Amino acid sequence: MKRIHFYLLITSGMCPVALISSDFHLITQPKSYDDAKTYCRHFYGDLATVHNLSDVNHLMASALNDSTRAWIGLENGRVWRWHWSQPDQILDYVNWGPGEPQNKSRDGCAAMDGRGRWFESDCAALRSFLCQGVGGTGGYTLVGEAKSWRDAQLHCRDLLSDLVSVRSAETNEAALRASASQTVWIGLFKDPWRWSDGSPASFRHWKPSQPNYLEGQDCVATVFSDQGKWNDLRCGRRRHFVCRGENLILIRENLTWIQALSYCRKNHVDLVHITTRDVQEKVAAIAKNSTSPHVWIGLRYTCLFNFWFWATSAPGCYQNWAPGQGPQRDYGCRVTGAVQATGGQQWVGLPDGERLNFICSACAG
Ligand SMILES: [Ca+2]
Q1: Cα of 217 from ligand 1 centre, angstroms
Q2: 33, 34, 37, 42: CA torsion to nearest 10
Q3: Residue 62 C-alpha to ligand 1 middle, in angstroms?
Q4: How far apart are CA 157 and CA 153, in angstroms?
Q5: Counting CB atoms within 10 angstroms of each CB, which of 214, 268, 325, 345 has the fewest?
Q6: Where in the numbering of this chain does the C-type lectin domain appear (predicted)?
Q7: Which domains does the chain have, with CATH numbers?
């Protein structure tokens, strides 16, 4: 479920091209929603945007044993907008019936009547519904069982599908035929929630009976003890929070290990420390984009005492040495650690005067 995005960041000076991996970071210093947002924007990209169930799993994995509620980047924008349940779909076609939608200032869902016209409805109403392309068939599947809009959405998603998106007169006709002229839910819903980073992501992962829009509950937290589901809560309450954004940067400049260390400490935080398999995976992914055969990491060898250590940090439990490398071997002095840019991407000891690309950690978690 681990997913890594790559962005190309063009900068000037010593760092002509840097490649950044993006991820979730749980911050366990409690802050109000606004202070959490300021923190994330300063140290990462923004508060976390969650695009799909895979992101939910990824975010849960970042939480380890945290059982609290943590802010994500969803907030009440006061403007009620219609969205398709399927992600990343623009509302570029509508077929509302006369007087529709009613645009009441409360959650709403759209249904199609027996003539193919849409109307706004209370999402708790029980109706049959259309799932889209179940089994990759591309058609529509009518589910005759009457469910609330949200339960209908869950039903379709359990079939690895979603409620139908209707984006042209032709598909509206096809959906009407599939509905056998019953009134059915389609995948359109209305809410006032917006993402802090401006993303149009329409994914929602509410706990049952949430959001309940109680006074001042204008910010959203993920509840780790409840499968990461969401609740709208008062924004002023100090909570843990989840940022999303870069934390590792590949510097495509060939420097010695000491130069690389001082570059990272001056411009970012430090040469990367690989203390978990998760970080190793990220390092391996971005090291593939390097212009040198190995990439410096923050691993240092002391020939005096014959052991390896992470520069300025206690040695971690995680290790990934290439065969014949690491503690069982005696190195000369001035040897430091690098990761192979390709192949098994394991760690090797190299003379610290070699000039290689390197990976900085961009900020402290
Ligand atoms: Ca609530």
Answers
A1: 6
A2: -140
A3: 23
A4: 6
A5: 214
A6: 24-132, 140-244, 243-361
A7: 24-132 (3.10.100.10), 200-242 (no CATH), 247-362 (3.10.100.10)
